[in-house]
Automatic annotation (TrEMBL):
InterPro entries per the UniProt record, alphabetical: L-rhamnose-proton_sym_RhaT
Alphabetical UniProt keywords: Cell inner membrane, Cell membrane, Membrane, Sugar transport, Symport, Transmembrane, Transmembrane helix, Transport
The name this protein goes by in its record: Rhamnose-proton symporter
GO cellular component entries: membrane
GO molecular function: rhamnose transmembrane transporter activity; symporter activity
Superkingdom in the source lineage: Bacteria
Keyword field contains Cell membrane: yes
Transmembrane feature ranges: 12-30, 42-64, 70-90, 102-122, 142-161, 182-205, 225-245, 266-286, 298-319, 331-350
Record Pfam families: RhaT
């Protein structure tokens, strides 16, 4: 029944999957803006339950009913490391949500994900001792060029964000991002970017689990679905502990037990569910995209980060977060957007060259 999904490696198809995942990642926070009368820790925790527990299990069981057997066969070592990296990544996801509160979508995504792109892409092959050998090949040089083009695009976006910070009045900033605080948001974005990169390591640690899935007849396209269950369980633990602490400290638990016109509990849960499932879809497509990238699978993280920033920039424009800035700042912003799109094309080209070289 899965023959249709036994697809061959195709880096540009992988780029497309990563782009769809990036759209989901850039869009997930929008439904949270519709939640009323709930503190951040309450709606983040409820949405996270859908993101990290319900959606991963539901889709894995729907597509790969043998998922429990796959996980049962996995070694304790691979499960522990995958879960542990998920815990660390969860810290990044937690502080990423706070980054959105203080910097807004466009600026918050650019800073946090730019840092994550560098660390999550280049450190794994460097740690494995493969980076120099990759850089010695034509395909590797093209792929790495794409990574550095991505960094240039992020830098352009950062320049636009800095200009925006200097040009807008405090009142204008509060209109687009109600809790805007550049210093607090910048510190959180830097920390979030470092910790979020652990998702790339979690996928690497979960490779033995994916191999078991393939050995059991799972289509290669879906091999990472069981891996995601383990990673996101770790992320859920981190986020739940922190949100529970905040809810207790701020006496926010009562928000879940009362339902009024001003506190529409069911509606809030539905918006949290929409945000949570949308968030999960980024890694659903990321997992598929990595299977398409071939030898330079690690470049998936750059593609994921670049596509998120592209779509978050578009959302920032649509939500008028850049309203009131100068034409020059708008040009910096659009230039960054164009360079990021170029980086995705170049990375896809490098991976295609690597596949062609391997075929010969």
């Amino acid at each position: 029944m899965f023959d249709l999904f036994q697809v061959q490696e195709n880096p540009f198809t992988g780029v497309l999957f990563h782009a769809v995942g990036g759209l989901a990642a850039a869009s997930f926070y929008i439904p949270y803006k519709k939640v009323k009368a709930w503190s951040w820790e309450i709606y983040w925790m409820i949405g996270g339950f859908f993101s990290w527990i319900i959606a991963p299990w539901a889709l894995a069981m729907l597509i790969l009913p043998q998922t429990p057997q796959i996980l049962a066969q996995a070694s304790t070592s691979s499960l522990v490391w995958t879960f542990s990296f998920g815990l660390l990544w969860g810290v990044g996801g937690l502080t990423f949500g706070l980054t959105m509160r203080y910097l807004g979508i466009a600026l918050g995504y650019s800073i946090a994900l730019g840092i994550s792109a560098v660390i999550g892409t280049l450190v794994p092959p460097l740690f494995e001792g493969k980076l120099l050998s990759i850089a010695a090949t034509q395909s590797g040089q093209v792929m790495l060029l794409g990574v550095f083009i991505c960094l240039a695009g992020i830098a352009l976006g950062g320049k636009a964000g800095t200009n925006k910070q200097n040009e807008l009045s405090d009142e204008d900033k509060k209109q687009s991002v109600s809790e805007f605080h550049f210093g607090k948001g910048l510190a959180l974005a830097l920390f979030s970017g470092v910790m979020s990169s652990f998702m790339a390591y979690a996928f690497a640690a979960g490779k033995p689990i994916a191999d078991i899935a393939v050995a059991q007849g799972s289509p290669s396209l879906w091999q990472n679905l069981p891996v995601l269950i383990v990673i996101l369980a770790g992320g859920f633990v981190t986020n739940f502990i922190w949100c529970a602490y905040l809810a207790t400290k701020n006496k926010a638990w009562s928000q879940l037990s009362s339902a009024t016109v001003h506190n529409p509990r069911l509606v809030n849960i539905l918006f949290c569910a929409l945000a949570g499932v949308t968030w999960y879809m980024q890694f659903f497509f990321y997992g598929m995209g990595t299977t398409m990238m071939g030898e330079y699978e690690f470049s998936s993280w750059t593609l994921h980060m670049a596509s998120i920033i592209v779509f978050s920039t578009l959302w920032g424009l649509a939500l008028k977060e850049w309203q009131g800035v100068s034409a020059a700042t708008q040009r910096w912003n659009l230039a960054g957007l164009a360079v990021l799109i170029l980086s995705m094309v170049v990375i896809g080209w490098g991976n295609t060259l690597a596949g062609s070289a391997a075929a010969h």
